[in-house]
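Fold it.
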Amino acid sequence: MKVPPLVRQELGDEEIRASVNLGDEDVVCFTATRTLVYRGEGLLSDEKVVAYPHDFERLTVSEGRRKTKLTLYYADEKRDLGVPVDRGETVLERLLEGKLHVAGVTADDEGVNGVFRFSELTLVVTDAQLLKHIGGVTWDADFESYSFADVTGLDFEEGSVATAIVFAVDGRPERIKAPAEQAPAVQKTLQRALFAYHDVASLDELNAKVGSEPDDEADAEDGLDLDSGIDPLVGGEDDEDESPAADQLSERAAKTPANGGQRTETTADADAAQRSSSQSRSSTQRTPPATADTSDDLASLESQVAELTAAVERQNERIERQEQVIEKLIEELRQGR
């Protein structure tokens, strides 16, 4: 591509790493730190170069019928970059490549292989990692990175609406859903980058190479080894020999006279009888004796119960008399009096 003289003046000591033709004389040139947009001379405007430094904080993308607008937010201003809609994805890839390089996310020789946007999800596939950003903006500092060096598995679960990308890192699976119509492009780009990084030719080879096997040695060490120095509870022939202390106890028992055992039993019986007698006396002492106050209370309670009983009986008699009067009135009414 022929570089316009005005762009060469703007470059200074920098080199053009990539460029995208926007049609006619317009072109976008990408350096390590800036994006330079050249607009050719028109009927109402002169040629010009607009620089977009790669140290922007946020990036948003909006697509129209003919144009794609990329808005770069800096600390003190925002700048819009409009390109034809069929050049939008390519410009976005190169722009993010410069941003990631300036931010130190990617190495000098690490390129961007693809950028995929699904609603509020943005995926960036580089030569050495997968970057995932979730949010209302296309890109900012809040993103997650998954290094290809830590990948332990890759799989794709196809569905009618979306395809789940199962990206395992250090044995932990990360599921990313991509719309069915865009999933093949994501799968192709991600596989190509991973295959090149791990020097394999197929998905099976990749999983066989990076897959981790369970550590059986650790389980064996945690198990109980019969030869680990645990003595059995039941001994062998050596355990049949008694200790010296046991021998001394046996000798003392043999020297004790027979009547000594009788005296011990007699003493034990006497002690038991004494304890039983003491318990009986204690039980007798704990029983409180009846007092005059208790008798008075019982008499008062009996008197109250008797009065209540008499009152109830009188009330019943009154009710019976009233019933008799009512029955008599009813009978007279029936007779027509």
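The mean pLDDT is 80.
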